[in-house]
Specification:
heterodimer, A: alpha/beta, 5-stranded parallel sheet, 5 helices, about 30% helix, about 15% strand, B: alpha+beta, 4-stranded mixed sheet, 13 helices, 11 strands
């Protein structure tokens, strides 16, 4: 099974490459448009629906510094697709080069179990979890800024900071009483 | 001026929205220039109705005139109510040569023989379709103009579209139709919808069809939004394939607006986890209904976004292929039933 490996290619000068994986293929497009507007660094964005990535693009694909899984909490399919894609990632990525982004967390129709399941998954992988709002331009801008912060560190463009160090500071944790019923 | 006519006119004016009222009255052309000038369409409906009733008295209109107005309005705004499609079967040898005059005479005379006190009005629309308005009566009462049936038929096609037809009136209408069009049989086409134009376009395939081809490059160009070299889709080819297959199944561009699709299942229950249900001999009866403002568009989106697996299952692709939206699914495969 071909895994996506983090260090098998050489990096580019002053560039950062990010892979956005989203089952619905909606939010990733607006995020991509906002990400490439960054001027300090050249950002290359790759969009995918799920992993594994097609072999034909292997040659032309740059070294991916950060893989972001976008999960839409209103859809169970979105969550399962992200979980299934995780298997195709080399374990080397999980040392700070993977990030999870969740949308629609405030929607009332979302069952709380789904968010808890996402948090448990992300905490077990020691990755950061970002909550984003995808319907407004402000929400897209905010999400882009946060992604860029992590991306620049993951691409090695920030002195004195490595991806592993940052992920240790920002990784998702679950409270010990997550399985207790909440008083809503 | 009699009461039924007053009621009919009142009902009709209430039904026509204010914006359409002036246009429809002008098209009808039965108001004199002075009367037209005296109508102020900015006033509330109640006032307009009273004005029209007084003009009605002046001009001595009858029910016939008012039904004319109703027909003009319905012909210009056919996308309301519920339309059902019927299909004529087994044409006789001379059915392709039935012309308009012949059809009109035959239909009127046959229907008049079958039903007493029926009032039939026929009109040819600009697109060559024949519109028929039928007000049904019976042996004891005059025709009821408040609940007319509208029938639309295009000569030389086997399809007839009806609205507001009760089950008692259906066999009478069917009999008159098959005699007038020189076919031997008529059956339910299992297609219904709110928009006449949509179900007609679906049956006559008046929407953009996509055929399988080896090089579907025009579609792949469509999926690329901005030619930004810094953004690239990894799975563009499989996305284009899905889009192509979705379009092949449902068509391209604007699709006819269907509102629902109903599947009546008469298949055996199949679930390895549930033994009690699977062991039953009788089929598991269940009705599945898909509803949407534009059903075919939503199904096409499902297929092209990957929610529905491609190639599109024949259960869904039969909707545009066979032009039906009511299916009975048995264990031998999807089929349609005679209703």
């Amino acid at each position: 099974m071909s895994l996506l490996k983090p260090f098998s290619k050489l990096p580019g000068l002053n560039t950062a490459s990010i892979l956005l994986v989203e089952s619905e293929e909606q939010f990733q497009q607006s995020l991509a448009d906002a990400l490439v507007e960054e001027t300090a660094v050249s950002v290359y964005v790759r969009l995918a629906k799920s992993l594994p990535l097609p072999k034909e693009n292997e040659e032309s694909r740059p070294r991916l510094d950060l893989v972001v899984f976008i999960i839409n909490l209103t859809s169970e399919l979105s969550f399962h697709s992200a979980v299934a894609s995780l298997k195709h990632l080399d374990p080397g990525y999980f040392l700070g080069k993977v990030c999870f982004m969740v949308t629609n967390a405030r929607t009332a129709s979302v069952p709380t179990e789904r968010l808890d399941a996402v948090r448990k998954l992300v905490a077990s992988l020691h990755c950061p979890l970002i909550f984003a709002e995808d319907q407004t331009p402000d929400g897209v801008t905010n999400a882009t800024e946060r992604l860029l912060t992590i991306l620049k560190v993951a691409a090695g463009l920030v002195p004195m900071a490595t991806a592993l160090y940052l992920s240790n500071l920002t990784r998702c944790t679950v409270p010990p009483d997550i399985d207790q019923p909440s008083f809503d | 001026m009699d009461d039924p006519m007053k009621r009919l006119l009142q009902r009709l004016i209430r039904r026509i929205p204010s914006q359409m009222l002036k246009i429809t009255l002008d098209k009808w052309g039965r108001l004199t220039a002075a009367q037209q000038r005296s109508m102020d369409f900015t006033q509330p409906k109640r006032v307009l109705t009273e004005k029209l009733l007084s003009i009605c008295e002046e001009n001595e209109w009858t029910v016939k005139h008012v039904t004319e107005l109703e027909m003009i309005y319905i012909m210009d705004n056919p996308n309301q109510g519920m339309w059902n499609a019927l299909q004529l079967m087994d044409p006789e040898d001379d059915s392709p040569s039935v012309n308009l005059m012949q059809f009109k005479e035959q239909f009127k005379s046959h229907l008049g023989e079958i039903v007493r006190h029926v009032s039939v009005k026929m009109k040819k629309h600009t697109d060559e379709a024949i519109w028929i308005r039928i007000a049904w009566g019976d042996g004891f009462s005059r025709s009821n103009h408040l609940k007319p049936t509208y029938v639309v038929h295009q000569l030389q096609t086997p399809y007839v579209f009806v609205t507001s037809l009760t089950s008692k009136q259906k066999p009478l209408l069917s009999q008159a139709l098959i005699l007038a069009t020189r076919y031997q049989n008529i059956k339910d086409a299992n297609l219904s919808g709110q928009k006449l134009t949509a179900i007609r376009d679906l049956l006559m395939r008046q929407y953009q069809q996509v055929f399988p081809n080896k090089y579907h490059s025009p579609l792949t160009e469509k999926t690329q939004t901005v030619l930004n070299t810094q953004i690239e889709r990894e799975q563009a080819e499989s996305a284009a394939n899905r889009c192509q297959m979705a379009c092949e199944a449902f068509g391209d561009g604007m699709l006819p607006q269907l509102q629902s699709a109903v599947y009546k299942l008469e298949t055996k229950f199949r679930d390895p986890a549930n033994k009690t249900m699977t062991e039953r001999e009788e089929p598991f009866r269940c009705v599945v209904k898909f509803a949407s403002t534009n059903l075919l568009e939503s199904l096409r989106q499902c297929a092209s976004s990957g929610v529905a697996s491609t190639p599109v299952t024949p259960l869904l692709s039969s909707i545009p292929l066979k032009g039906k939206n009511y299916f009975v699914v048995t264990d031998n495969g999807p089929g349609s039933s005679q209703k």
